[in-house]
Amino acid sequence: MSVSRDDVLRIAQLAELDVEEDALPDVAEQMSRILDYVAQLSAMPAPTNGTVKTFVPGPDAIHFRPDEVAPWPLAFGPAAFAPAFKEGFFVVPKLGQFE
Amino acid sequence: MAAGWEAVIGLETHLQLRTKSKMFCGCSTAFGAPPNTQVCPVCLGLPGALPVPNGAAIRLAVRGALALGCTVHPKSIFARKNYFYPDLPKGYQISQHDQPLATNGTLSFVSPERGIVNATIVRLHVEEDAGKSIHDRFPKATAVDLNRSGVPLIEIVGGPDLRSPAEARAYLQTLKQLLEYIGISDCDMEKGSLRVDANVGGSVTQQPMLYDSRENTVRPQRSKEESHDYRYFPEPDLPPLVLTPEFVAEEQSELPELPPAKRDRFAAQYALSREHATVLTASRGVAEYYENVVRAGAEHQAAANWIMTEALADAKDHQDQLRVPAAGLAQIIALVKGGTLSHQAAKRVFAEVAAKGGDPRTIAESLGLIQVADSNVVAAWVTDVLGAHAPEVGRYKNGETKLMAFFLGQVMRASKGKADPKLAQRVLEEKLASAS
Amino acid sequence: MSDAKAVADRLVKSKRLNALLTPSKELRSALTAQAAAARPTGVLYGMPVAVKDNICTLEFTTTCGSRILEGYRSPYEATAVTKLKAAGALIAGKTNCDEFAMGSSTEHSAYGRVVHPLDKTRVPGGSSGGSAALVGAGALPAALGSETGGSVRQPASFCGVVGIKPTYGRVSRYGLVAFGSSLDQIGVLGRSVHDAARVLSVISGRDPRDATCEDRDPLRLPTVPESLQGFVIGLPREYFPTELDPAVRRACDRAVRLLRDLGAAVREVSLPHTAYAVPTYYVIAPAEASSNLARYDGVRYGPRFDGHADLRGLYRATRGQGFGAEVRRRILVGTYVLSAGFYDAYYRRAQQMRALIAQDFRNVFDRGVDLLFTPTTPSPAFKAGEKLSDPIAMYMSDIFTVTANLAGVPAISLPIGRVKGLPIGGQLIGQAFLEDEMLEAAYALERVVPATDES
Fold first, then answer.
1. Are residue B278 and residue B296 in the same domain, yes or no?
2. Contact assignment for C295 to B45 by CB distance below 8 Å
3. What is the mean pLDDT of each run of 10 residues along chain C (455 residues)?
4. Is the residue at B310 inside a domain?
5. B117/B221 same-domain check
6. Nearest to A72 among B42, B86, B137 (CB)
7. pLDDT band, very low/low/confident/very high, at B434 (cuts 50, 70, 90)
8. How far does the CA of residue B50 sit from the closest CA of chain C (Å)?
9. What is the mean pLDDT of residues B92-114?
10. Best residue in A90, A95, A99 to probe B by mutation, most B CBs within 10 Å?
11. Which of B84, B236, B242 is opposite residue A62, by nearest beta carbon?
């Protein structure tokens, strides 16, 4: 298995996802299967001609927006959709471990 | 710094670009609006919203890169920097990573310890700002304001070329001056438009340090996330940032004369000392003001003296506003030179014009500060004074020449201070010599 | 107003499919209001179009089939929706889908699975399964879906309807909730090629709010051609493997004969990197998704879930309970492939492979091939629950569709036959921004394919 229990915990922390303790073996197993499956890409020999091309669909270059104050419209403001909103601010619990 | 331990400091400076609207949406960047009122689907990170880049921000960033002598790359790539923070609405910041806008420039500054230092500018890239988390607004909760979210920034990464906090300060002042000069940023720390992080190495560890330029201190930075694995990858919502040679050339032509060149020119063209030239070119506004005063006819050194004393002192107390128009200052200088105003009186006129505006001569007249330099008028006052003080005239003639000061005082008194003192003395001397 | 009522009645009658997330009462009043406001001069005047629930609308909630957006009302609407309304169409509610469009069976919705319109034991395909099922059941002439790896074409194939994925950049993504931004496009499911194409034409064209949308005029619809004389159609051999379902193979063989009969020149071609398409897709799509779904953190919108003492607790509870298993799995995989030390082996490699896959298409198109014909899916609609425990088996149902998303080219699926009553879809893949040629061939083929008989 390519993904260990600790790998899952490390990745879950980066992704800010709770993974239940008893779900860990299953999640590690499934991630392993998927990652082992996509790992066939690295089995392909790397392009040798030096310049590695990548492909991005869409326009070749950015088109700029003019510097005008013209906000994209909002039918209603944050107070209407925020889960916690007070005195004009979004409200979240204190940062805890972030501090 | 502990003795024998030499710090190696590299600064990462974030500057807000001077645009009307945000980096990737049409919201205003104006400072001081009520919280969460300058927001839209894009800068709130609503589901389905997409970024569209502001052309003016890219122009200003390119201008900054050129002023720092950087190579501006014809193609650069926006990238996502992924981390969680409540004021980062999308869960990632749109920045640039392995293909930045510009690399490899230089900033020359005067180190208090080593003289002129050429600091490396490793890279300059464009990114968006996060919002603001306010931790002391509510008990047990953090308040989040997203008005700043998406404001355009450049990050300027300096090489590890600085040896002390004093050098870091000199580097920053020079950088700030340059970027204000070329008009791309207000560099206002109060409004958060200039922020600095320092990387301090030199010993074995490379701990990220925070440099506070106001307190001039360096302290270890508290880590924002437990892990710094930002998982950068190319921003799929934005095509490559491709700049044509014409675009870059246009910005090059928009660059004004930069401070070092201007200082040298001032010294040569106006025969000023290097110190005076440095003071007068420290900001673009002052330099322009000086040249306007000179253009309005003021003598070079007198203009320099007036600006370095009266004008800058007044500006310091009034939000850096140069309140007396250049033509007005030139007129004041001319009035002093022509003997119409004494130096003391001229300072009063300057203060009046600064406070209330108006024409310096008219103000001088209304304040009764014009010196009377008409010899007939002065002669009449002298005649009156000498006639009224016959005993003193006698004593003077008997050799008590120190009475000249007494006579002069009486003439000034009779003229209510308006007599040109030099003229009055000359007329007194003539009359006392001839009236035998 | 009777139009609005009839539209609503037909939709409500299909309730057993669990294809529409909008409650009947709300649907009726919204349709009535829209019908009263619709512009009679619009080219889609009065046409009901249901919209996949990952496309933002002002009239209805936009939940993406997820608990994390339960009850979420978007304060703005997608450009595609604005264009539909401007053309006089009626937005006929929101359709059920795999959560955040991640899935191929519409079993991964927090609001229950969608039932296949012809066989209740089977899946309608996904992730646009709700849209496909409604059109397949005859409740609507057309519906919007979205594509990241085949999410319009695969359910279209399963439900016996037409599904178009336009060229990347043909339709604005503004208001389409992002899954894999470099792959996502809004697509259309329609009763016929024409129904799908006319809706596509309306929603296509430039949009200053999407930097990846090309600065082009809307798609112009071709006329139905008399023949396909002059068309060169390639059959990529990698799309006809030996293990292909025999019924699907028979239907494809017949469709190829029909294309020849219409005058097209048909030749075998090769897209040699096809075998790497699914692994490439399952690196790029989760990587982009892991970043795109970071914004669902319980701070600004959507519900908050219990169990948060501090901010990190809020994040973990909201994201842990708000996202379903498949979404969580893809976020973890995507985070993994972008994380320090793994980026080069996975993400960079996948980007390189994507370039090779796109080059495969350019190579065949540069050699005089106008269009490719392939099966849309390796098999007809499978049983509900059949692939739920095996994510890779589920991923393999996208094997013939992901390539067009990776290469950014347009593709259409249309019915080419049935087996035991279950529809089989055939796919035409076109060149970038040449949807008109692709549609011409689809029009011609659609006209000659027998409607219902066993292939």
1. yes
2. yes
3. 84 97 97 91 95 98 98 98 96 98 97 98 97 98 98 98 98 98 98 98 97 96 95 98 94 97 98 96 98 97 84 92 95 96 93 95 97 97 93 89 98 96 97 98 96 58
4. yes
5. yes
6. B42
7. confident
8. 6
9. 95
10. A90
11. B242
Closest to C441 in 3D by CA, of C401, C416, C412, C417: C412
Q: Does B236 touch chain C (CB under 8 A)?
A: yes
**Looking at B234-248, B333-347, C198-212, which range is the least confident one?**
B333-347
Torsion angle of C-alpha atoms C299, C303, C306, C312, degrees rounded to 10: -20
Instruction: Check whether residue B404 and residue B300 sit in a common domain.
Output: no
CB pairs under 8 A between A and B: 124
The DSSP string of C198-262 is HHHHHHBS--TT-TTS-S-PPPPPPPPPS--TT-EEEEEGGGS-TTS-HHHHHHHHHHHHHHHHT
Residue B65 phi/psi, 5° resolution? -65, -40
Q: How many CB atoms lie within 10 A of CB A63?
A: 15
pLDDT tens digits along B246-269: 999 999 998 999 888 899 999 999
Question: Do B239 and B342 reside in the same domain of the chain?
Answer: no
User: Which of A44, A65, A90 lies nearest to residue C300, judging by beta carbons?
Assistant: A90
| Domain CATH code at residue B400 | 1.10.10.410
Catalytic residue among C52, C85, C94, C165, which?
A: C52
Test B231 with C55 for CB contact under 8 angstroms.
no
Taking the model in full, what pTM does it have? 0.88
Q: Are residues B355 and B393 in the same domain?
A: no
CB–CB of A56 and C182 under 8 A? Answer: yes
Domain end, chosen from B253, B270, B294, is at B253
- Please indicate if any CB of chain C lies within 8 Å of the CB of B46: yes
Structural domain contains residue B2: no
The reply to whether B150 and B85 lie within a common domain is yes
Residues of B whose CB is below 8 A from A68: 20-21, 26
- Evaluate whether ipTM surpasses 0.95: yes
What is the span of the domain harbouring residue B395?
375-434
Domain final position from B189, B223, B253: B253
Closest CA to B78 of B214, B197, B240: B240
Q: B233 — contact with chain C (CB < 8 Å)?
A: yes
What are chain A's partners, defined as 3 or more CB pairs within 8 angstroms? B, C
Work out whether strand C232-236 and strand C371-375 pair parallel, antiparallel, or are unpaired: parallel
Answer yes or no: C420 catalytic. Answer: no
Number of domains in chain B: 3
> Neighbours of B (≥3 Cβ pairs closer than 8 A)?
A, C
- The catalytically annotated residue of C109, C128, C151, C413 is C151
Share of chain C above pLDDT 90, in %: 92
> Residues of chain B with pLDDT > 90: what percent?
62
For residues B275 and B261, membership in a common domain is answered with yes
Residue B204 clears pLDDT 50, i.e. is over it: no
> Which of C76, C304, C336 is closest, CB to CB, to A31?
C336
Rounded CA separation C2/C47 (Å): 13
| C94 classed as catalytic | no
| Domain C1-455 falls under CATH 3.40.50.2300 | no
Q: Residues with Cβ < 8 Å from C192, sequence gap 6 or more?
A: C162, C446
A29/chain B closest Cα distance in angstroms:
23
What's the pLDDT at B419? 84
In whole numbers, what is the pLDDT of chain C averaged over residues?
Answer: 95
Cα C297 to the center of its chain, rounded Å: 27
Mutate to test the interface with A, among C332, C342, C353, C395 (most CBs of A within 10 A): C332
Active-site residue, C127 included: yes
* Burial classification of residue C384, based on how many CB atoms lie within 10 Å of its CB (0-12 exposed, 13-18 middle, 19 or more buried): buried
Give, as one character, the DSSP assignment of residue C162. E
Which of B84, B90, B142 is closest, CB to CB, to C315? Answer: B84
Closest CA–CA distance from residue A2 to any residue of chain C (Å): 12
Residue B247 in any domain: the answer is yes
Quick check: is B3 in a domain? no
Domain check: are B319 and B360 in the same one? yes
Q: Any bridge partners for residue A89, and if so which?
A: A86
Mean residue pLDDT across chain B? 88
| CA gap B22, C2 in Å, rounded | 47
Given this model, what pLDDT does residue B2 score?
A: 44
